[in-house]
Structures are given as structure tokens and as C-alpha cells.
Amino acid sequence: MEIDLALVELGVIMLTLAVLGRIAVYFELPTTPFFLAAGLFFGQGGLIPVEESAPFIEVGATLGVIFLLFMLGLEYTPKELRQSLRTNARGGVVDIALNAAPGALAALMLGWGTQAAVVLAGITYISSSGIIAKLLTDLRRLGNRETSTILSLLVIEDLVMAIFLPVLAVMLAGGSSVGAALSGAAALGLVVTVIVLSPFAERHANRILNTESPDVLLITLLGLAMLISGLAEMVHVSYAIGAFLLGIILSGQIAERARTLLNPLRDSFAALFFVNFGLGVDSSALVNMIVPALLLALVGAVTKLATGWSAAKMAGSSRNGARRAAVSMVPRGEFSIVLAGIGVAAGVTGDLKSLVVSYVLILAIGGSLLVRFVK
């Protein structure tokens, strides 16, 4: 990697984001659509493609999601998480039923076969934790009553993905149904163990980690967040859910200090996450599947609206709260792209990526604007 060129590229990208951010703030819009557009501008087929800085941006994007979900976890205690999951379990079931079906049916209608149907079902099911977390933060909705419902649905989705991914990997590799079931059970067991033991870990973690030095605390938190996220990925659990669970374990005074220390890092690296999303898109290939993507996005928006609305109403939210919860679930993002990459690598169909990228961009940008304007 040419360091000088990489630094120039990063400088241009960051200054572009700064200008776009000022425009978004001026018009009282979320920054997410602007940062996604910047990624397209600098990505494959864009006007100014970047190459040397791409590896750093990819790592920075991963850190952005880790910080976003880690700080979301800091908002909840283990007791609050378990209570919220119990309260919103029915909403999680509705989420699966409404949002996995469109993807599976679309793949079968396009003649892509059973494996593609399973992959696309996961793609249409999962919302974007990264985009939604940033929107809730930017719009100062973390304290809203319906936000706990939204976060519970996102956590349930990540838990489902923790089981789904190893099962999918075995299935695409031609493994047996027994092997797939064992992989899913192992992932589920790990996540349940963490949730059950989190109150015990919470008591000791705060005592061990507490220090008067903000520098030492920041370095400790960064190291823990990266370590736990990496270990989660190694056992086929989303690094995002690993970061979230770590945030759940930490509470009290450390959580307050952590929010202050990590806020600037979260916002800076979250911007790189959205840029990286756009960088991986070949804009010239988007037109190939634009009509199926538009139809699937329309159906996906409607089913997520129904999911958020029904879950919020079951949790006792007001009509306004249910409306905010409904639109907050619409954005799709990083996990859908990851699943598409897994499917294409396994030889499902090359058209899958074009369809999913178009679908995700429509719902990432359109969903972000919905969240901003529906109050």
C-alpha cells in the first residue's frame, strides 16, 4: 500500500464527509444517506474510485459497527435486556414470519432454486443494526419508549443470525442436516450462556475495569470491544452482537464514562462504515436487477413497517411511538450484503449480488429518510 496516496485519499474522503455532514445538519436530515452516496461516488464505477485507502476504510467500517453496538449495549442492564427480550418475543416471531418469506418467494419466482431461497430469506429478514443505531442516536431517540422495542427486535434478529449463519454455511457446503442442526445449537448455546451469566459478569467487570485514568479506561474498553467482537466472529456469532453483549455487561459509572470517551470515535468510524458500504458497490451493475429490487424493496418496506408497528403496540407504545418503531425497522444494510457475498461465493447465482445491492441501497437510503421525516 502506498502510504502517501492512502493518506491523500482518506483526507479527501473525510473532508467530503465533513461537507456533506454540514449540508445534512443545515437541512435537518440524517447524515446516513449522504455518507452512503459518498461511498458510491468514491466506489467501483464512481467518479473518483479509491484503492490505496480501501483496506483501512474496511477495518474502520468494522470498528464503526462495533462502537455503535457496544454503546447501544451500554444503555441497558442485563436485567433490562432479559425483560425486553421476553416482552418482545412475539414481535420477534412476527418479524421472522413476515420478512423471511418475501425473499424466499422471490428467489423461487426467479428460478434460482432452494439454496438461493434460503439465502435471500435471511437477506430480507435482517434489518441494519448499524444504520438504525446511528439514526436513533442522531435523532436523539434513545430515550424514547419505543426504542427498547426496536433494539429488542434487532437483538433477536442478531441472535437468529447467530444460529442461521453456521446452519447456512453447512447447507451451502453440502453438509448433512444433522451437522447444520449441531452448528446452530452450538451458536445458540453460546449466546444463551452469555446472557444468563451477564449479571455475574457485570458485578465483577465494573470492579476490575474501574480506573481514575480516562486514557487507561479508553484503551481498556477499545481492547475489550475488539477482542470480544473478534472471538464472537470466530465462533460464527456476529461481531455486532458480541459488542452489544459486552456493552450490556458494563453499567453504572463505567458506562457513563465510556459513553463520554467513545462518542467521538463512534461517530467518526460510523461514517467510514457507510462509506465502505458504498465503496463495495459497482454502480454500473445496479441497473441489471433494478426492477426486481424495487418490487422486493417495496414488499420489504411494507413487511418491516408491519413488524415494527405490531411489536410496538404489543409492548404498549402509543400510536406515535408505534409509527416511529415501524419506520425505524425499514433500513437494510451490512448483514444483507454479507449474506449475499456468502451465497455468491458458494455458487448460488451471480445475479444475487446485483439484486441485493440495489435492494439494500433503496431501503438504506429510503428507510433513513423515512425515519427522519416520520415522527
Structure overview:
It contains 16 helices and no strands. Helix 8 packs parallel to helix 14. 80% of the residues lie in helices and 0% in strands. With 375 residues, the protein is mainly alpha-helical. The protein has helices at residues 3-26, 32-42, 54-73, 78-87, 89-109, 114-125, 129-138, 145-172, 177-209, 214-234, 239-249, 252-279, 290-314, 319-328, 334-345, 351-373. The longest helix is centred in the middle third of the chain and has 33 residues, at 177-209.
The oligomerization state is single chain
The major sheet is characterized as: none
Q: Quickly count the helices.
A: 16
* Contiguous runs where pLDDT drops below 50 for at least 5 residues: none
Strand content: under 5%
Compile the SSE list and pairings.
Blueprint: H1 3-26, H2 32-42, H3 54-73, H4 78-87, H5 89-109, H6 114-125, H7 129-138, H8 145-172, H9 177-209, H10 214-234, H11 239-249, H12 252-279, H13 290-314, H14 319-328, H15 334-345, H16 351-373
Helix pairs in contact: 1-2, 2-12, 3-7, 3-11, 3-12, 4-8, 5-6, 5-8, 5-13, 6-8, 6-15, 8-9, 8-14, 10-11, 10-12, 13-14, 13-16, 15-16
